[in-house]
Amino acid sequence: MLLYFRLLKESLSFALSALRNNKLRTLLSLLGVTVGIFSIIAVLAAVDSMDKKIKEDLSDMDLNTVYLMRFSFGPSDVPRWKREQFPDVTYEEYEHLRRTLNGVDKMSFNLFTRNESIKYEGKTVNSIRVKPSTGEFIDIEPIKIETGRYFNESESNSGSAVIVIGSEVATGLFGETNPIGKKIRLYGQKFAVIGVLKKQGESTFGDSNDVAVFFPVNFLRRMYGDNNKTLTPAILIKPEKGVDIEEFKAELIQKMRLFRSIKSGDINNFFINVLSGFTDFIDNIVGQMNFVGWLISGFSLLVGGFGIANIMFVSVKERTNLIGIQKALGAKNKFILFQFLFEAVILAIIGGLFGMLLVWLCAVGLSAALDFEFVLSTQNMMLGTGLSALIGLISGIVPAISASKLDPVEAIRTGM
Fold it and tell me: Which sequence ranges are marked TM in the entry (predicted)?
């Protein structure tokens, strides 16, 4: 065992000597490993960071939450021309499901619409996300109130002109002034501010509640009716805890088909989107991104492997005389073999460490610049180190074998 530690020490010394004596040649040869490891670990870190952020954004939501609407969250077997003919869900269907559907904890009717501008006296905040809904929406989406309150069922049903605003909207319109009770203008109408949300920060899907406002959906229905093409309605349903989601979906489908008088044999003209299915879709995309990252980075690693092999062949040639002397003094073939193998692995690991250092620097810089946390996990660092060692092992095996098989007499004569 001590022999191998000594061998490892000597190999490290030879590797560092190669870096010192042939800086440019060695660094250029290691560049392939550095770029390859950087590419793979950077892709993995970016994908892991995005996946973590998505999971965090959805962590406060029940993944069994159902979005009933005319659109599908993911790919669909229904042809596009047929999907475009699907009718929107209606407020009447929402009320029918509230009365008849079993296993429901909370249910909300929402309208998705375009961004708007909001005014208060001489100040205007643009590109505000407008989220009209019924009162139970706060129990479905993780909306956290900083000051004031959310609108109640009575205000929701009557379509009162009350509004809850995001933290950035409050800052943009009122600065440090308390906005509760103030009147702001939206859709040319005045709304009374009754609540301000806690700051959420950036969201993966770009729909942070910091730049959003919430008000009763019936206010907008009263203004535009139910057939406005700029409005996309959806019914959000949060099932009770412990409900079998497949049975719940089956009952929901049955209720909707009966209400819409869909004939037996005809397809559903609505989509039931479950958040857990959406996360599975995201996991599939993440897997594909990882695969593509590995595929592209593999070419860089291949180039890096050739670079390490080149260093080792040169090293064998430069140290032919030394190899001959070692063999003449009794060094066995496997001693020479391991000596060059260790050196190749050490050089590859050095190149890999440079690649991971670049990933870490990029992660720190981007996290600070984009307000998005890029995570370089211990698992990815271990993977990078392991890949580097594997590249060194594969690239160094042929030069190491050629060195171990040298005839000592010929090696000493060649090196003289």
Answer: 27-47, 292-314, 335-361, 381-403
Residue 62 lies in a domain: no
How many structural domains comprise the chain?
Answer: 2
Residue 130 φ then ψ, to 5°: -100, 125
pTM for the whole structure: 0.62
Q: Which two tokens stand for residue 412?
A: 């000493």
State how far the Cα of 188 lies from the Cα of 132, in Å rounded to an integer: 16
Contact 259, 94 (CB under 8 A): no
Tell me if 74 is assigned to some domain. Answer: no
Q: Please say if the pLDDT value at position 278 is more than 70.
A: no
- Residue 96's φ and ψ, nearest 5 degrees, are -65, -45
In the chain the first and final C-alpha atoms are separated, in Å, by 33
Which residue is associated with the tokens 């301000």?
Answer: 196
pLDDT digits (tens, 9 = 90+) for 14-44: 666 656 666 676 777 777 778 888 877 887 7
105 & 235 share domain? yes
* One domain for residues 177 and 103: yes
Full residue range of the structural domain in which residue 140 is found: 87-269
Q: What is the DSSP letter of 38?
A: H
> Are residues 98 and 230 located together in one domain of the fold?
yes
Residue spans of beta strands (DSSP E) within 240-318: 271-274
Strands 232-239 and 66-69: antiparallel
Strands 104-112 and 66-69: unpaired
Same domain, 142 and 212: yes
- Nearest partner of 8 among 329, 349, 385, judged by Cα: 349
The label of the residue with tokens 């060695």 reads: 26
| CA distances, 369 to each of 53, 364, 413 (Å) | 17, 9, 61
Tell me whether residue 79 is exposed, middle or buried, using C-beta atoms within 10 angstroms of its C-beta: 0 to 12, 13 to 18, 19 or more: exposed
Per-residue pLDDT reduced to its tens digit, 190-237: 999 999 998 877 665 556 788 899 999 999 998 888 777 788 999 999
28 and 107 assigned to the same domain: no
The Cα–Cα gap between 393 and 407 comes to 24
pLDDT digits (tens, 9 = 90+) for 66-101: 899 998 877 778 888 888 889 999 999 999 999 999
**351 contact partners, CB below 8 Å, separation of at least 6:** 30, 31, 32, 33, 34, 37, 304, 308, 388
7: left (phi over 0), alpha (psi -120 to 50) or beta: alpha
pLDDT at 68: 93
- Judgement on whether residues 173 and 198 belong to the same structural domain of the protein: yes
